């Protein structure tokens, strides 16, 4: 399968041709949930998957996203240890993926190229998760929200609930902070839309050197 090998060249020495046809997934498809057994190792060919942690109260915190050529840390950790999945995954847009059976995953680990690919993904994801923990533990929510609003142009089509999920909090708190930003003249709020009026003020309020134009804000749910 040329497309698969182009995205995951470490599979060239293995037997990806026997994996069958890719699965077609629609936006919003739940690929797995917390505490269920891992049914396989997903390889994304097209689209994007959001991996999130859900609290007993129903709050969610996005951990990372998986796109073509990326690997899912939660799935690999589950398969390594034979434990239930510790997070949930939802397709953010239509896509295609291959689900590698657990037995095949363990067979492939005997090959250095695949093993190095998985361990390399662990290192990259751990860096991302460390940054996420740092933001949650040491940066105030209003600063994180200001940073999340930057880098997406003058108008964001996003709900308060989606922002709350992105930041690991509840909608009511996000709404309260956004209304304060509006009173300051930094943003203008309307239904499922936020217009940036003073990006310089938001950038100063974010007060972090990590604010760039590559942040991700979830689309309208």
Note down, in words, how this protein is organized.
The protein is an alpha+beta fold and 221 residues long. The chain folds into 2 domains: 1-110, Jelly Rolls (Sandwich), CATH 2.60.120; 134-205, Arc Repressor Mutant, subunit A. Helix content is 39%, strand content 23%. The chain contains 8 helices and 8 strands; from the N terminus they run αββββαβαααβααββα. It has helices at 2-7, 73-81, 102-108, 112-138, 141-149, 160-167, 171-183, 199-206; strands spanning 23-25, 30-32, 41-54, 60-66, 88-100, 155-156, 187-190, 193-196. Strands 1, 2, 3, 4 and 5 form a 5-stranded antiparallel beta sheet that branches. Strands 6-8-7 form a 3-stranded antiparallel beta sheet. The longest helix has 27 residues, at 112-138. It is elongated and about 60 Å long. The chain starts with a helix and ends in a 15-residue tail after the last helix. Residues 1-20 form the signal peptide.
Q: Just name the CATH architecture of the largest domain.
A: Sandwich
The H-and-E topology, N to C, reads as HEEEEHEHHHEHHEEH
CATH topology of the largest domain: Jelly Rolls
**What does the main sheet amount to?**
5 strands, antiparallel
Please indicate the count of domains.
2
Distance between the termini: 34 Å
Number of extended strands = 8
CATH class wording of the largest domain = Mainly Beta
Query: How confident is the prediction overall: mean pLDDT?
Result: 85
> In which range does the helix fraction lie?
25-40%
GO molecular function, one term: DNA-binding transcription factor activity
InterPro entries: cNMP-bd_dom, cNMP-bd_dom_sf, Env_Response_Regulators, HTH_CRP, RmlC-like_jellyroll, WH-like_DNA-bd_sf, WH_DNA-bd_sf
Protein name: Crp/Fnr family transcriptional regulator
Keywords: DNA-binding, Signal, Transcription, Transcription regulation
């Amino acid at each position: 399968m040329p497309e698969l090998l182009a995205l995951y060249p470490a599979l060239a020495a293995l037997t990806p041709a026997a994996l069958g046809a890719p699965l077609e997934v629609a936006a919003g498809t739940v690929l797995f949930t917390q505490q269920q057994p891992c049914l396989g190792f997903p390889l994304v060919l097209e689209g994007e998957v959001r991996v999130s942690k859900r609290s007993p109260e129903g709050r969610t915190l996005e951990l990372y996203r998986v796109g073509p050529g990326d690997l899912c840390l939660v799935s690999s950790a589950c398969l390594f240890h034979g434990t239930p999945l510790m997070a949930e995954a939802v397709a953010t847009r239509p896509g295609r993926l291959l689900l590698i059976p657990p037995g095949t995953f363990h067979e492939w680990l005997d090959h250095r190229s695949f093993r190095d690919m998985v361990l390399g993904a662990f290192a990259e994801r751990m860096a991302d998760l460390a940054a996420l923990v740092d933001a949650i533990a040491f940066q105030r929510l209003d600063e994180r929200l200001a940073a999340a609003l930057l880098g997406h142009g003058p108008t964001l089509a996003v709900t308060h609930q989606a922002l709350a999920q992105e930041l690991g909090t509840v909608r009511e708190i996000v709404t309260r902070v956004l209304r304060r930003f509006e009173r300051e003249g930094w943003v203008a709020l309307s239904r499922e839309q936020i217009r940036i009026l003073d990006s310089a003020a938001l950038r100063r309020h974010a007060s972090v050197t990590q604010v760039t134009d590559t942040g991700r804000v979830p689309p309208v749910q």
